[in-house]
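User: I'm putting together a teaching handout on how multi-component assemblies are represented. Below are the sequence lines for each component of a complex, exactly as they appear in our records. Could you produce the 3D structure of the whole assembly as structure tokens, so the students can see both representations side by side? Please keep the chain order the same as the input.
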Amino acid sequence: MLSDSAELVEIKQKYNKYFHINWNLTNKCNFSCAYCHPYNYEGSSPAFDLETYKNFVTKVKSYLNEDEELVISFTGGEPTALPVFDDFLTWLVEEKVQVGLTTNGSKSLRFWEKHKESFRWISFSFHSEKTNLRHCVNVIDTLWPHTLLGVRIMMHPQQVYFDKCIEFFNILKTEPYMGQFFVEKVPIVADWLTENERPHIYTKEQQEQIDEKLSFKRRSANPNVNYEQYTMPIDATAIYKLKDGRYKEETILDTNGLYSAKQNKFKGWKCNAGIDGLFVNELGYISGAACLPEGKDEYGSVRWLGHIENLKTFRMPAYAYTCQKTECFCNTDLILSKFKEAVAV
Amino acid sequence: MKKLLHISNCWHEQLANLYDLELVTDNPDIVILRDPFDRAVEATIDLLDSGGDTRGYTFEELLFQENNIYSKTLGIETGSAEELKQKMFKFVWLSSFIIWPRITGELHPKEQTKPLERFNLTSTSKKLSNYLSVPYQALNVNQRFISSDLGTALRGDFQLANSIDYDLVRKLKIYTDKGRYYE
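Assistant: Of course. Below is the structure of the complete assembly, with chains in the same order as your input.
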């Protein structure tokens, strides 16, 4: 991020050929980790039939320009726990949709072997309570040659699981020997998704172990895909106005830097929610972004853009929203194009 | 008995065994070097296979723990052509030499490097048998990776950290062409 005196005036999508759907597919999960909000594994969200998912994707694609590509990032819950996920993914690949996935990696090696070339990127979350170290190493070894792979080790505060996290972090330093992936320790958030949400306070010894080395990049081998396929398709850049009136572009938007500098405030800005991408929640409701920029009606209900089961009324937004939110919390919302109307460059 | 410079993970033990050479680290007659990055990767795999202490380093960090091994073993100080000339090696060859060919427009990382064909274990053994005037012996290629599979960016960083060795290997390569050392 640029210096504090530089004023952020615009965020732009780095590649304008992608339309991105941020899709929270389900709140079903085969894990039930102590630090996760129970809603994320209670499995109360509906599982629609395969045609419903396909029809929605087809509808979105019908709005895209010929040279625009659809990118979908699936989150949950655990997206692979959705019964039709395997078939849906196979169909998406046939339709040349680029898929990103956040997963606990617990599916069988046979599944990952079958779909190793199906993903543009994978965020692999390691949950020490529920998972097997050797299985995780094998999954990583299966996936890294084909996709941009990030391994997020969720630092469980309970000592026995904390130790397992550290052990896994250390294993990945040299296993597999050959690989190209990123590994990071992720401190957990206490009372996540509640009003009391806050960083967990680790013991002094634990914090020292976390701080000793937060992350590393394995890069002993080349992936099997070309450089273009290996890049993240939905990155953003930022334009800053400097003190002397000049403008400067930050090639890679530092979202973490924006949060920590409290520059994630865009109230009054024009935001391309619904134009650069969409958000779909676990119930199948469609919005322009995870912050639900459509607002609420007089009865307090969200003015959703539609529902994946009822596409007749669904229309893509044609104009940028004027942001009404005090802060932009979600990374996928933060990277949507947005600008201060008077000074956009 | 001719003296072959010994550095681990360069097939020197195999060469010495097949051609009845003495393995030395001082005053060698015969210098046969392998691509430095490939050698370092092989050495790291060996360390891990044997359960060696990694001291908390990643695979990639382990590669950089000891740099410019060839030059250090040979006691190279300036690396100049004159210094190499004074070493008076009798036989010089490379068992592999990875090059960065002109970029063709393909943005595929595995096509960014390739081996120079004339330097391989077959040509090494043939050249050595000619020099020693003994029958050719086939070498066992036991490399556990394909050179172009190795991380290209990492190879670049390694090359920078081991620039003295790469300069040495470049000069030896020219020597195999011209029979002289050039800057």
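A couple of points students might notice: The two ends of chain A are 19 Å apart (CA to CA). Chain A is about 25% helix and 25% strand.
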